[in-house]
Specification:
This protein is of the alpha/beta class. It contains 12 helices and 12 strands. The protein has 2 domains: 179 residues, NAD(P)-binding Rossmann-like Domain (Rossmann fold); 129 residues, Orthogonal Bundle (N-(1-d-carboxylethyl)-l-norvaline Dehydrogenase, domain 2), CATH 1.10.1040.10. It has an 8-stranded mixed beta sheet. It has a 4-stranded mixed beta sheet with strand order 4-3-10-9, covered by helices on one side. The chain starts with a strand and ends with a helix. 45% of the residues are buried.
């Protein structure tokens, strides 16, 4: 396959490296002063998936450099707040046979991308393995809670196409499966990230510690309750019948598997970058206003993260 990876952050580095090692042609879009370093050194991953390195076929800094190419697969691995500009940039590269996979956090990425890219070309992914940037073009895979799940929220991409794509990723060493209920998985991750990520960033502690402290546990309970009230109003089903059932799994199964993990939102703040709060708790607040559901705790947490972004 001819693959374009739009964004060589932690996740993009993992996918580009493993897909190249699996025999695919891989072009990646990188930004800033690190571009030449990656061209010179290639990409590398370490961590729980062992060590791998590869030289990509091309490192570009703008879409105009590949506007004549035909891509079979485009992976969008940028932050959620860049989704609109990314979709706008790649729309000219999307032919009828091109699949565009959104490998991002939070709510709204699919809806934003669909403004520019036909839904029959769009695949939504729930990614729940963790990767951290160690150096330009180098990522460390730190944890995996489940396989990547691929799906088509509108059922506009056939099951066979999705299964073939999952097989490509699995062959590259990325555990992946498909589901006709991908939004259930996406919302499961949104709830998880909304409860843990911002509080971990604000308090600079690992996830396991948040579950041990009474006050942070109460805040997380409140985040979860508000989101389930919202989902009920939206008519969006999850794999849990109610907030209590989710909390049972959250504290007994989810948090223990990532207890030593630090918030990616904290990493963004420490590097002076925007966070994805608007696609997590911020999206809950916006949807709450739309559906008439109070989201007081989520709103306070959103405002605190935005303040932390400004003060550093």
């Amino acid at each position: 396959m001819n693959v374009l990876v739009f964004g060589l952050g932690a996740l993009g580095t993992v996918y580009s490296c493993l897909l190249k090692k699996s025999g695919h042609r891989v072009v990646a879009l990188a930004r800033g002063a690190n571009t030449q370093i990656i061209r010179d050194k290639g990409v590398r991953i370490t961590g729980i998936w062992d060590e791998h390195s590869a030289r990509l076929d091309n490192i570009i800094t703008g879409i105009k450099q590949v506007q004549e190419e035909q891509f079979d697969l485009i992976l969008v691995t940028v932050k959620s707040y860049v989704t609109v500009s990314a979709a706008r940039a790649i729309t000219g590269l999307v032919s009828p046979g091109t699949l565009v996979v959104l490998l991002q956090n939070g709510y709204g990425n699919y809806e934003s991308a669909a403004e520019y890219i036909p839904r029959e070309n769009l695949v939504l992914a729930r990614v729940i393995f963790g990767a951290e940037t160690i150096a330009p073009g180098e990522s460390m895979v730190t944890v995996i809670a489940d396989e990547v799940v691929l799906g088509s929220p509108d059922n506009t991409v056939s099951g066979d196409v999705l299964e073939n794509l999952a097989a490509v990723f699995k062959q590259a060493g990325i555990p992946t499966r498909t589901s006709s209920e991908v939004m259930k998985y996406v919302w499961g991750k949104i709830i998880y990230n909304s409860a843990l990520n911002p509080l971990g960033a604000l308090l600079n502690v690992e996830y396991g510690r948040l579950a041990e402290v009474e006050h942070t546990r109460e805040l997380m309970d409140g985040v979860i309750s508000e989101i389930f009230a919202l989902l009920t109003a939206m008519g969006q089903e999850t794999f849990w019948p109610d907030a209590d059932a989710y909390r049972d799994d959250f504290y007994e199964k989810m948090v223990p598997t990532t207890a030593s993990h630090h918030s990616s939102m904290l990493q963004d703040i420490m590097r002076g970058r925007m966070t994805e709060i608007d696609a997590l708790n911020g999206a809950v607040v916006s949807l709450g206003r739309e559906y008439g559901v109070p989201t007081v705790i989520n709103e306070v947490i959103t405002r605190m993260i935005k303040a932390r972004e400004q003060v550093g």
